[in-house]
Design a protein that fits this description.
CATH class of the largest domain: Mainly Alpha
Shape: extended
Distance between the termini: 108 Å
Strand content: 5-15%
Oligomer: single chain
CATH topology of the largest domain: Receptor-associated Protein
CATH superfamily of the largest domain: Type II secretion system (T2SS), domain F
CATH architecture of the largest domain: Up-down Bundle
C-alpha cells in the first residue's frame, strides 16, 4: 500500500490537506471523496499523516503561529460520550469519527476529530492516533483504549472511560464547591474592609481633626492603618501579587511542591477533603484499568501519574517497586502509612477473593460517600465561622470610629 498526500476542497469550498493510504491513485481518490472532499492534487509520498503532521505542527507551535489543539475537560467528556454511543450502536471507530467530523466544526475538537479520522482511515490504531494529542488524551485514556483494542471490546472500554471521567469531574466539582465558598466570602469581606479603610475612615479622620478631639487608642490605630493603606496601597498590592506569583512558581516543582502538598494534607477539613478525593481517585482509576485488562504494575504506573498530590503519588511509586519484588498490593501500600487502614483491609480482602477490581469499586463508593460528607461538613461549619469573622472585623472598625463620637457626646453632657 502506498501513501498519497493530497490537497482538496470541502463542499463549502474550504481548503483541506492530508495523507491517505491506498493501492493506487484511483483508490486514493475514492477515499478522499468518501470523506466528502473534492481532490485538487494528489502526490505519492513516503510519510503517513502522523509522520507528516508532526514536524510541521511543532514548527508552528515554536514559531507561535498555531498551537496544537487541545480539548477542555467538558469537551473531552462530550466527545467520549458521543463516540462511545456511536461505537456501541454498531459503527466502526472510523465511521464513528467520520460521523463526528461531518459537522465541520472549526474548533479544537473538530480539528482533533478530523486528524483522528484520517489516521484511522490510513490503518493507524485508534490508541496510537490518540497519542498525537497527549495534552488532551491522558496516559490513562490511551491505555484504556489500547486494552479495549487488545481484548476486542472497544465499546465497553469507551463506556468505562466515559463513566470514569464523569465521576472524576463530579468529584472535582465537589472539592471546588467546598473550597470556593470560603474564597468568595473572604474576597467580599476583604473588599468591604478595604473600601471602609480607603473611603470612609479618612473622612472621619478629617472630621475629628477639625473638631480637635482627643482620640482613643483603637481609633488612632485605625487611622494609622487607613493612612498606610491609602498612601502605600498600590505598593502593597504589587508586593502581594509578586509574592503570590513566586509562591505559585515555587510550589509547582521540586522541594516546594512536595512541601506544599505535605502542608495541604495537614490542613483541618481541607486536608481531609484532598486526601479523601485522592483515595477515591486512586481506587477508581486502578479499578477501571484492572477491569479493562491492564496488569497491576502498568496500572499502578498510570495511577501514579494521574494523582495530583506528590506525597501520595510518591507512595504509590514506592508501592509499585515493592509489588515488583513479588509482594501483594495491600502490603506495600500499608508500609507507607499514607493510605488509611480501611482501604488497605478492603484491598486485602479483594486479593484474597481474587476480585481486586470489585474491591476497588467498593472502595471508590466508600470514599465518594465520605467526600460528600466532608464537603457538606465543610460548607456547614465554614459558612457561619467566616460570616462571624468578617462581621467582627467590620464591627471593630465601626466601633473604633464611634468611640470618639461617644466620648464627645459624654463631654457635652458634663
Amino acid at each position: 500500500m502506498a501513501h498519497f498526500k493530497y490537497i482538496g476542497r470541502t463542499k463549502q469550498g474550504e481548503r483541506v490537506e492530508g495523507v491517505v493510504e491506498a493501492s493506487d491513485r484511483a483508490g486514493a481518490v475514492r477515499q478522499i471523496e468518501a470523506m466528502a472532499q473534492i481532490p485538487v492534487s494528489i502526490n505519492e509520498t513516503t510519510k503517513t499523516a502522523k509522520q507528516d503532521s508532526g514536524p510541521k505542527k511543532r514548527f508552528k507551535f515554536e514559531m507561535g503561529f498555531q498551537q496544537k489543539p487541545k480539548m477542555k475537560m467538558q469537551e473531552l467528556l462530550l466527545f467520549s460520550r458521543e463516540l462511545s454511543d456511536l461505537v456501541a450502536s454498531g459503527m466502526t471507530i472510523g465511521r464513528a469519527l467520520h460521523t463526528l467530523s461531518a459537522r465541520k466544526d472549526e474548533s479544537a475538537v473538530g480539528r482533533i476529530v478530523e486528524t483522528l479520522r484520517d489516521e484511522i482511515i490510513q490503518g493507524t490504531a485508534f490508541s496510537d492516533a490518540l497519542e498525537l494529542y497527549p495534552e488532551t488524551f491522558s496516559t490513562l485514556y490511551v491505555n484504556l483504549v489500547r486494552a479495549g483494542e487488545a481484548s476486542g471490546n472497544l465499546p465497553t472500554s469507551l463506556e468505562h472511560i466515559c463513566v470514569h471521567y464523569e465521576r472524576v469531574q463530579e468529584a472535582r466539582g465537589k472539592v471546588l464547591a467546598a473550597l470556593s465558598y470560603p474564597v468568595i466570602v473572604m474576597l467580599v469581606g476583604g473588599l468591604a474592609v478595604i473600601g471602609l479603610m480607603v473611603f470612609i475612615v479618612p473622612k472621619f479622620a478629617s472630621t475629628f481633626a477639625d473638631m480637635g478631639a482627643t482620640l482613643p487608642g483603637p481609633t488612632l490605630a485605625l487611622m494609622a492603618i487607613s493612612n498606610f493603606i491609602t498612601h502605600y496601597g498600590l505598593v502593597m498590592v504589587a508586593l502581594i501579587a509578586g509574592g503570590v506569583y513566586l509562591f505559585k512558581k515555587w510550589i509547582k516543582q521540586g522541594k516546594g511542591q512536595k512541601a506544599w502538598h505535605t502542608a495541604v494534607l495537614r490542613i483541618p477539613i481541607a486536608g481531609a477533603i484532598v486526601t479523601t478525593n485522592a483515595y477515591a481517585h486512586f481506587a477508581r482509576t486502578l479499578g477501571t484499568l484492572l477491569h479493562n485488562g491492564v496488569s497491576v504494575l502498568p496500572a499502578l504506573g498510570i495511577v501514579q501519574k494521574t494523582v495530583n498530590n506528590v506525597v501520595i503519588s510518591e507512595e504509590i511509586g514506592k508501592a509499585r517497586e515493592r509489588v515488583t519484588d513479588g509482594s501483594s498490593l495491600s502490603g506495600p501500600l500499608a508500609q507507607g502509612k499514607i493510605f488509611p487502614r480501611l482501604l488497605i483491609d478492603m484491598l486485602a480482602v479483594g486479593e484474597e477473593t481474587g476480585d481486586l477490581a470489585g474491591s476497588l469499586k467498593h472502595i471508590t463508593r466508600r470514599y465518594d460517600s465520605e467526600l460528600d460528607r466532608l464537603v457538606q461538613t465543610c460548607t456547614t461549619v465554614l459558612e457561619p465561622l467566616l460570616i462571624v469573622f468578617v462581621a467582627i472585623i467590620i464591627g471593630g472598625i465601626a466601633i473604633a470610629l464611634l468611640l470618639p463620637v461617644l466620648t464627645l457626646t459624654d463631654s457635652l453632657h458634663v
